[in-house]
Structures are given as C-alpha cells and as structure tokens.
DNA sequence: CTTCTTTTAAACAAAT
DNA sequence: CATTTGTTTAAAAGAA
C-alpha cells in the first residue's frame, strides 16, 4: 500500500525536479503572492506545489556544487551513501543512523529518504501548506503551533541529486519501499542525476555525508525511522531518539527577508555553537552552523563563493550569533520593510543589489575572525561557548557537544594506539587508590591521560566497560554506592605476562629453527642448481614467503634480518602514516589546485623527513627517527607535519596562503609527554551523582579520611598536573584545546579522578564548576574511534591508522568463558557476605575494609547456576597457546606514556645503525612524492605490496621503491569514479576511510625533491621549523635520549 | 583462508 | 522514570 503511494510520489517528485531544473531561471524576488499560491495551492501533489512555489519565487540560484569549497562538509566517498541508504531504509541497526551518516561522506541519499517520507505524507500535505507560508507568522510560536498539526505539511524539497556518481540507486531502498516498480524509480533518479548539472535552490544544508537542497520555503527537520509512517520530514536525521520527530524547521520569513530556523525539538539545538532552546527562532546566515542531536550541518546560501573561500576557510563566523540568542529570535517579528525582503536569498543579481542587510540584526560586524583563522591559531576563541547557553537550569538534558575538527587541538585528533586494556591499566595505575576507581573516575582518568577521548563521541566508554568486565586483569575491589571500584589484578597480569613471554620465546626459537632448516634446504638446492627462480607467490606473511622459496640472496637477507624486515615494514608503515596524516591535515584545501597541493604535500613530506632526520642526527640518535617519533609520539609528528605543510604552502603559493593547516599554539603542544596533561575534563556526570545524601556523603568523607593516604597520593598527582596545566595556560594564552577548563581543571584536580563521591561539600562546589566549564558533548562526530558504521559495505575498507596496534595483547585470556572456573580456582577468597556487605558497605566501607576483600564478584551478578553446567572445558588457560607473537615485551606493564615511548624508542634504535637509518630515510625521501589526482592510476594491491623484496631493493631503482611506498599509502580502487575533483581527498581516520581516492602520481621526482630541499625548502624549513618543529624535535629528542 | 585478538554495539539486568 | 553501571553476545576489523 504505502509502497505504491510511495512509488507514485517519488516519480512525481522526480518529474517535478526535472521541472525545477528546467526552470532555473529564477525570477528573483519573492513575491508575496507566492503565499497565496502556497496556501491555496497544493491540491493534489504537493510536489507540484512546491515546484510552483519555487518557480514563482524564483529560485535564486543555481548552485553548482563547488565541492572543494566546502570540502570539509562534502567530500568523500561513496560508502557513506550506502550507509545513508541503509539507514534511511531501515537498518535500525545502524543505529544512530545519524552517526553513520555523518561519518560517511558524500552525496546524499537523503533525498530518497525524503521521498519516502513524503510519500507517506503526501496525503496530508495540503492543509499544512497553507499555514506554512503565511508570512505574517514569523513568530516562532506560530510555527510551533503548526507543528502540532504535524502531518500536514508537505512541502518538500527537492532532492537533489547531487552528484552522484557511483552509487547507483540503492536497490535496497527502492526495492523495499517500492516493491512495485523499482526500475522506474531508479531510472528516473538516474536520469535526473545525470541531467542536472546545476541545481536550483534557495539554499542548501551541508551535512557531512550529504547535501540537502532547500528548494521550498519551508523545511522540516526531524527524526523518522523507517517504519514510522506517522509523519514526514523533509530532512530525516535518522532514528536517534534525542532528535524529535519535528525538531526544527527552516522557513523563509518574508518579514525579515531571510531564512530562519525555529527549534521545536525538546532537546534544542546548537546554532553556531550556541545552544538554542526549544521554542526559539534564529535567523540563518550563510554558513550558519547547526547541530541537532549529534548531527552537525551548515546552512549555505547561494552566492558566489569562490572568492570567499580562500579567505575564509572557516565556516563559522559565529560569535555574533551567540549574542543573538533569544532576543534575536524576537527580531524576527520585527516589522521590517519589504525592501530588504530579498536579501536573504541572494539571487545572484538581485540579491546583491538589494541586500541591505538589516540593521535589525545587530550581529553583522563581526570581526573578521574568519580571515585570521589560520594565522592565529584559531582555536582559542572557539572553545565552545556552549557552556553558557546550554546550561539551562531546567531539566533539559544537556546535550552533548560534538566537536568540529577545528575545535579539536591537533594533538588530540588522533586516537591513541593503546588498546583499551592498556588504557585501563595505565589509568588505574596512575590514579587508583587502593580501594579502586569507580567507573566514572576511570572515564575521567582516561580523558585526562588521553585527551583524545575528551573530544570524541562516547562510544569508547562502552568499550571500557566491556573490558573491565571481560578482562580478568581488572577486578572489582570494593563497592561504592552504585557500582564497584575497580582495580588491577596484578597477579593475573603477571602470570599472563609470563606466559606470553614464554610463548614468545618459544615462537622465536621455533622460528629460528625453521629458518635454519630452510636455509639448509635452500643451500642444498642451490648446490644442485635447482634454484631457478620460483617466483614468489605472494603469500602475504612476510616471514613465510621470505623463507619459502626464494633466491639465495633473499634467503640470506631474510636470515640476517629479522631486523631488516621490520625496518622495512616500519618504513612503509611510517610513510603510510605520514601520507595519511598529511591528507588529514590538508583536508581543507582552501581552494588550492591539485598541482599546488601535490607540490605542497611533497615538499612538506620532504621537509618533515629532513627535519626529523637532521634533528636525530644532531642528537646522535640512531634508528629511523620518523618511525620512532610516530610510534612514540604521534602528536609531535603531527605538529611537525602541520608546520611543514604550512611552510610548504606559503612557499608554493608564494605567500598567498600562509596556513593550510591550523596550528595549535606552540606552547600548548609542548606538554611533556610524561606528565599528565593539563586538560581535565572529567567528571561531568558527577553532578548527577552528587545527589548523594548528606549522610552518605558524610560517610564517604570519613572514608576518605581513613583512606587519606591513597587519596593524598592521588591528589598530589592530580594537582601537579593541574598546576602545570594552569601554568601552561597562563603562559600561553593558547586557549586552544584547554579552553575553559582552567577553572575546571583546578577543580577537577582537587577532585582528581577518584574522588567523585567523597568530599561532600567540596564536591558540590567543585562539581558545579566542572559543569560550567566543560561540556563534553557536541559536534564531534567527525572523528571517532569507532569502526566504520556497520553498514554492509562490501569490500573496500582501508585501514586508517598505520600504526600497529600493540599486538602483544594484553587483554586477558579473554574469552575464557569458564569464568566460573577461574574464580573457583583462583579462589581468592571470596566473600560472600555480599548482600550484607553491600548494605553495610556504604557505612562499613567507609570505615575500614582495608584489605578485606578481594573478592571476586560472587554475590552480585554471579550466576553460579550457570557455572555448573559448563565444566571447565578446556582449561588450559594457563597454557594458552596462542603462539606467534613474538612480541617482545608487551607494554602492558608499562605505566606511563613516557615509559612506553622510551621503551619503544629503545627497541627501535638498538636495532639499526645510524648509517642505515639515514640511508633509509633518504630512500624514503625519494618516495616522498604524494600523488594527487583523482584518477586511478592504477590499483596497487596491498598484497603485492606487502612483501616487496626487501633485500634486493637496495639495488633496485628508485622507482620501484616509490611505487611500493605509494601503494602502501593510498588505497586504490579499480573503478574510480572520478567526478569530483576536489571533493574527495581525505577523510578523517575516524571515518575509516574505506576507499581512498586513488592518487596518481604526478609528482616530483626524487631529484626534484632533493633540489627543492637543497635550495628553497631548506631555508624555509629553517625559518618555520625552527620555532615549531625544531623545538618539538628537541623535546622529542631529549626524551629519546632519556630513554636511551 | 582460518584463527585469535580487539574494538564497537546492543540487549539486558540491577542499582540509584 | 531516566541514568549508570555491569554482563553478555555479536559482529566486524586486524594481525598472524
Ligand atoms: Mg574483569
């Protein structure tokens, strides 16, 4: 039933769109009569009406989609499409369709979604229309009322197809929805897509993964799950419950002559980073940032952007908006004259002329922040203002802020490579009191240790919980109000380590033995003369193939080199990492042409390599410094890369563009690794918790006192970090990431991660502070640690992060299922008094306990019954056999980042000799070219790449090497779609790039690079680098030295 | 291609 | 009634 309708509607829409396209002309102004049309209009097809409206109104412009301009918002790959589609259709699974959508990129399908929706609604449409339009009612209230009616309106916008490329229609959607005649739909859509070169619309909404064209004067934005046919929305933000079915609407206010957005949803929205409560209406300016739920997008008005683009890369001019707030909302109502009427929708011509902006709006003269943007380090100002606004006293839940790339300090944009178990171990070691740490404290601790987690979405917390419960290394030490205080099971950890080592050794021995054998065999063969080349088939595993039948030389190489191999791999890994980071850093091309970008990237890479190498040499450090740096402290590397990119940029553009990448304030970055970081975000939640009754609090307090020692220790640590933080901040106004936290930091510090519950009074105060200062939610979806959306994406998939995970593995034995056994076995002492204890716990806990427990679970959840069934099964836990790994010593044991780093460095260094390193580096340099261009030069396959013959390489021509490296760096796909130019480029690692654009390599040859380095670049390097990179290097170096 | 580890998500239960 | 906190189970991605 619905399906049929749907199909019909869709087709009609499509047609209509075509019409629109044709219509393009656009008359220009918005004439009042339009209203009439709209109101009266819409009989039958909504669509038609819409079109009419458009026509009458005149659509202003055609937007071409200069993707590059909006590179941030638009670029990227197809996969997203799939995601969207799936989300749209149904896939609840994907769950936050929103998120997945966002993450993914590219064209949208929303249209389709819309269509669906529309269909459903189509019926209702008519009446709604009437209301909408009435110009008079600008007032928000009015609007709101309308909403109540829900169903009604239907105007939809067009869907524009945007470019689309590859993604063919998603069969799924259509098939599902319109079983009736998928073909038709598909065809239509295709047709449209192809045909339309430009799109007529009043404005557009740029989402991360798609673009919505506003082609009607009223657009409803909200939530809608697939099966929900009760209402329709023009822009479907996915199933997330945090978004109301009708969360916001964008409409044209004839009175003020501009588009405005009314927030209808319960949870409000962020407009230019300012929280706007439900019921308020705010004017939309070009590039106004909007965030609803977890979905950020931007309102874009047509205009000629080209020029601007360059200058103001930054999309957000926000500040004023903030001020606007409610008051402004009111402004809407202001009577204003017709004269300006058109402005908002600046038709190219008319708009310009008319645009007298409005005095009405106070905002305008903002400082040209945008322009400064790059140069000034940007960050400071932005911070998030949200704290102020969002804090409503009411119940409304504090929405979470999603950070935008630019809002996140460079250092914290990349996910730490540590596994969660390592993260937890480090965190607990650092902050835990003997009694353990509560979950919230752990969260806070991790954020403090690794600020990355401050800015990313909260998915990681789920992983943390998962690890705590599943991994035996973590045990419940004592109970706290609601949950448990977690601690480390040192014994368990120790044992595990042992086993591992054993295994490792065994493996190593084994490997050696194997090699020996092989060697012998080969030698024999050689003698016989049977060494004819057996081409190596590529078994991927390096070792394996190496051994397998290879030439003697190869064999030899293999033998001597475990090192070599690793080195080579390291090198590849490093190059890959560097390339990826560069792509990430330069995601915003700022209008530069490909050749320029290619040039810049190439030079930047060369500079970075050169710089780091030099520094290392100076310091007399051996080993491939780049690899060491990458492993040890990627943040620094990123900074260096950023500096190099900027240096290269200004060089290439001859000063036109000084900063392609936003640099965080120098001071801020300096933070020594070893120490705790300044920013302490922390316990946001605490607030809620505090509620603890006075009694309890008092108890706690007591507890604390008793525990003093532990807490004291903690406190000290915390404070230390705090102090540093504050100092740092003070020194440099950097503002960057740190932001508001200053106050907060202190407060937090005092609390330190652990304290949450304790200090009652103090706590409250503290908590408050915390709240105001910090706001963890918000626009961050850009990056995020998580895996790609679980969309059914087929092949693709690339790994973003080059870094290797710590394979060693710390987890546990994990999976052991028979938890029961262990417990029983381990026996610890259990205590069962559980229930009693719990009750008392609060009280008793506070007092003593001391050692008391170790208890492993027991009471609470333990399901003993179950245990019975399972028998031990394979117990072997101890034995464990996993094999492989040689992993050296695992880091699990490591405590501090510093330690980790040091250890890493040592290892690296020890292996290689200086000379070799240098040579390697050089080689790398040559490799340095970064290809840019979309076409698919050719797909290189990972497999092939995987095992390049190493030993031989030396002799090999540079070219070969280059190829390898290149391949490694970027993914290639066979069929590329070209189409967009600037559009795709890179994406956040978080996004998981599935497919990377394929780059062809135009580039510079090794010689060229050398030349550049020698001549121009060098100079630049010195200049630019001195301050930033160099300083960084020094630090790094010093650390390295220390380590050594 | 299979196995093992780790990460992400979700569904649920319990406690607040 | 909404959140937290914990357990479990799946599935997907990576490394071996
Ligand atoms: Mg555990």
TrEMBL record:
InterPro entries: FHA_dom, Fhl1/FHA1, Fork_head_dom, SMAD_FHA_dom_sf, TF_fork_head_CS_1, TF_fork_head_CS_2, WH-like_DNA-bd_sf, WH_DNA-bd_sf. GO terms for biological process: negative regulation of ribosomal protein gene transcription by RNA polymerase II; positive regulation of ribosomal protein gene transcription by RNA polymerase II. GO terms for molecular function: DNA-binding transcription factor activity; RNA polymerase II cis-regulatory region sequence-specific DNA binding; transcription coactivator binding; transcription corepressor binding. It comes from the Eukaryota. Transmembrane segments: none annotated. It comes from Vanderwaltozyma polyspora (strain ATCC 22028 / DSM 70294 / BCRC 21397 / CBS 2163 / NBRC 10782 / NRRL Y-8283 / UCD 57-17). The lineage of its organism: Eukaryota, Fungi, Dikarya, Ascomycota, Saccharomycotina. Residues 367-379, 515-524, 672-686, 693-711, 737-773, 938-952 have a biased composition (Low complexity). This is Pre-rRNA-processing protein FHL1. Residues 415-502 bind DNA. It is found in: Nucleus. Keywords: DNA-binding, Nucleus, Transcription, Transcription regulation. Its main location: nucleus. The keyword Lipoprotein does not apply. Residues 415-502 form the Fork-head domain. Residues 810-835, 847-858 have a biased composition (Acidic residues). Residues 347-357 have a biased composition (Basic and acidic residues). Residues 541-551, 883-899 have a biased composition (Polar residues). GO terms for cellular component: chromatin; nucleolus. Residues 24-60, 308-402, 515-551, 656-711, 737-899, 923-996 are annotated as: Disordered. Residues 219-276 form the FHA domain. PROSITE patterns: FHA_DOMAIN, FORK_HEAD_1, FORK_HEAD_2, FORK_HEAD_3.
């Amino acid at each position: 039933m619905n399906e049929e309708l749907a199909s019909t509607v869709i087709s009609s829409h499509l047609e209509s769109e075509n019409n629109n396209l044709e219509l393009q002309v656009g008359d220009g102004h918005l004439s009042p009569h339009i209203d009439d049309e709209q109101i009266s209009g819409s009989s039958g097809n909504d669509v038609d009406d819409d079109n009419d409206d458009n026509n009458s109104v005149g659509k202003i412009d055609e937007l071409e989609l200069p993707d590059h301009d909006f590179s941030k918002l638009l670029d990227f790959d197809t996969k997203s499409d799939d995601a969207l589609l799936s989300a749209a259709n149904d896939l609840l699974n994907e769950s936050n369709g929103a998120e997945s959508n966002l993450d993914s990129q590219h064209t949208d399908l929303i249209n389709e979604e819309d269509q669906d929706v529309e269909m459903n609604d189509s019926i209702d449409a008519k009446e709604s229309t009437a209301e909408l339009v009435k110009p008079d009612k600008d007032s928000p209230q009015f609007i709101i009322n309308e909403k109540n009616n829900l169903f009604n309106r239907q105007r939809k916008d067009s869907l524009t197809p945007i470019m689309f490329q590859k993604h063919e229609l998603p069969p799924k959607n259509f098939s599902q929805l319109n079983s009736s005649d998928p073909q038709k739909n598909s065809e239509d859509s295709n047709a449209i897509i192809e045909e339309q070169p430009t799109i007529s619309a009043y404005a557009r909404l740029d989402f991360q993964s798609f673009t919505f064209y506003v082609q009607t004067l009223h657009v409803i934005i909200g939530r809608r799950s697939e099966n929900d046919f009760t209402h329709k929305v023009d822009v479907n933000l996915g199933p997330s419950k945090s978004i109301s079915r009708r969360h916001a609407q964008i409409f044209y206010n004839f009175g003020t002559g501009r588009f405005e957005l009314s927030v209808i949803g319960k949870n409000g929205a962020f407009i230019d980073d300012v929280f706007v409560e439900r019921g308020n209406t705010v004017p939309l300016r070009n590039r106004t940032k909007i965030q609803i739920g977890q979905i950020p997008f931007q309102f874009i008005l047509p205009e000629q952007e080209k020029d601007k683009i360059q200058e103001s890369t930054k999309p957000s001019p926000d500040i004023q908006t903030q001020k606007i707030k409610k008051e402004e909302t009111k402004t809407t109502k202001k009577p204003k004259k017709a004269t300006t009427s058109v402005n908002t929708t600046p038709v190219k011509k008319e708009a310009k002329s008319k645009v007298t902006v409005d005095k009405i709006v106070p905002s305008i003269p903002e400082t040209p922040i945008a322009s400064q943007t790059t140069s000034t380090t940007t960050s400071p100002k932005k911070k998030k203002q949200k704290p102020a606004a969002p804090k409503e006293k009411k119940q409304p839940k504090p929405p979470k802020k999603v950070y935008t790339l630019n809002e996140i300090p460079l250092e914290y944009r990349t996910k730490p490579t540590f596994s969660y178990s390592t993260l937890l171990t480090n965190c607990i070691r650092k902050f835990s009191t003997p009694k353990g740490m509560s979950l919230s404290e752990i969260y806070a601790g991790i954020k403090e240790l690794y600020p990355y987690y401050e800015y990313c979405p909260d998915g990681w917390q789920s992983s943390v919980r998962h690890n705590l419960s599943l991994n035996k290394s973590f045990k419940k030490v004592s109970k706290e109000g609601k949950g448990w205080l977690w601690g480390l099971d040192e014994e368990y950890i120790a044992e595990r380590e042992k086993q591992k080592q054993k295994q490792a050794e065994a493996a190593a021995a084994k490997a050696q033995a194997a090699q020996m054998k092989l060697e012998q065999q080969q030698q024999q063969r050689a003698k016989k003369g049977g060494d004819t080349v057996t081409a190596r088939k590529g078994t991927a595993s390096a070792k394996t193939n190496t051994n397998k039948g290879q030439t003697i030389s190869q064999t030899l190489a293999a033998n001597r080199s475990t090192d070599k191999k690793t080195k080579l791999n390291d090198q590849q890994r490093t190059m890959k990492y560097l390339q990826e980071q560069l792509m990430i850093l330069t995601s915003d091309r700022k209008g530069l042409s490909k050749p320029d970008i290619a040039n810049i990237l190439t030079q930047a890479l060369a500079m970075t390599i050169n710089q780091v190498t030099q520094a290392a040499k100076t310091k007399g450090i051996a080993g491939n410094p780049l690899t060491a740096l990458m492993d040890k402290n990627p943040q620094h590397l990123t900074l260096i890369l950023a500096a190099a990119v900027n240096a290269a940029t200004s060089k290439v553009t001859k000063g036109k563009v000084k900063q392609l990448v936003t640099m965080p304030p120098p001071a801020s970055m300096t933070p020594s690794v070893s120490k705790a970081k300044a920013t302490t975000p922390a316990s946001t939640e605490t607030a809620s918790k505090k509620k603890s009754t006075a009694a309890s609090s008092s108890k706690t307090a007591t507890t604390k006192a008793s525990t003093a020692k532990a807490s004291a220790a903690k406190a000290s640590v915390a404070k230390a970090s705090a102090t540093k933080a504050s100092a740092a901040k003070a020194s440099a106004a950097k503002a960057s990431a740190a932001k508001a936290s200053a106050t907060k930091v202190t407060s937090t510090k005092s609390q330190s991660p652990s304290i949450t519950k304790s200090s009652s009074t103090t706590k409250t105060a503290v908590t408050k502070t915390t709240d105001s200062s910090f706001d963890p939610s918000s626009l961050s979806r850009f990056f995020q640690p998580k895996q790609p959306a679980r969309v059914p994406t087929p092949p693709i998939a690339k790994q973003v992060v080059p870094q290797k995970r710590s394979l060693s593995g710390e987890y546990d034995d994990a999976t052991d299922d028979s938890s029961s056994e262990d417990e029983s076995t381990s026996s610890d002492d259990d205590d069962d008094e559980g229930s009693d204890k719990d009750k008392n716990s609060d009280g008793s806990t506070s007092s003593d306990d001391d050692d008391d427990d170790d208890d492993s679970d027991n009471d609470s959840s333990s399901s003993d019954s179950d245990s019975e069934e399972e028998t031990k099964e394979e117990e072997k836990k101890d034995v464990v056999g996993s094999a492989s790994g040689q992993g050296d010593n695992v880091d699990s044991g490591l405590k501090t980042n510093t330690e980790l780093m040091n250890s890493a460095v040592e290892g690296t260094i020890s292996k290689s000799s200086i000379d070799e390193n240098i040579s390697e580096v050089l080689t790398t340099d040559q490799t340095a070219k970064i290809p840019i261009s979309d076409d698919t030069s050719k797909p290189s396959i990972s497999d092939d790449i995987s095992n390049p013959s190493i030993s031989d390489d030396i002799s090999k021509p540079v070219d070969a090497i280059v190829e390898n490296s290149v391949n490694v760096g970027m993914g290639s796909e066979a069929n590329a779609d070209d189409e967009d130019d600037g559009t795709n480029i890179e994406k956040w690692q978080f996004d998981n790039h599935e497919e990377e654009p394929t780059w062809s390599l135009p580039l510079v040859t090794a010689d060229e690079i050398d030349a550049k380095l020698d001549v121009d670049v060098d100079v630049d390097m010195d200049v630019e680098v001195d301050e930033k990179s160099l300083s960084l290097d020094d630090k790094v170096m010093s650390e390295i030295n220390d380590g050594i």
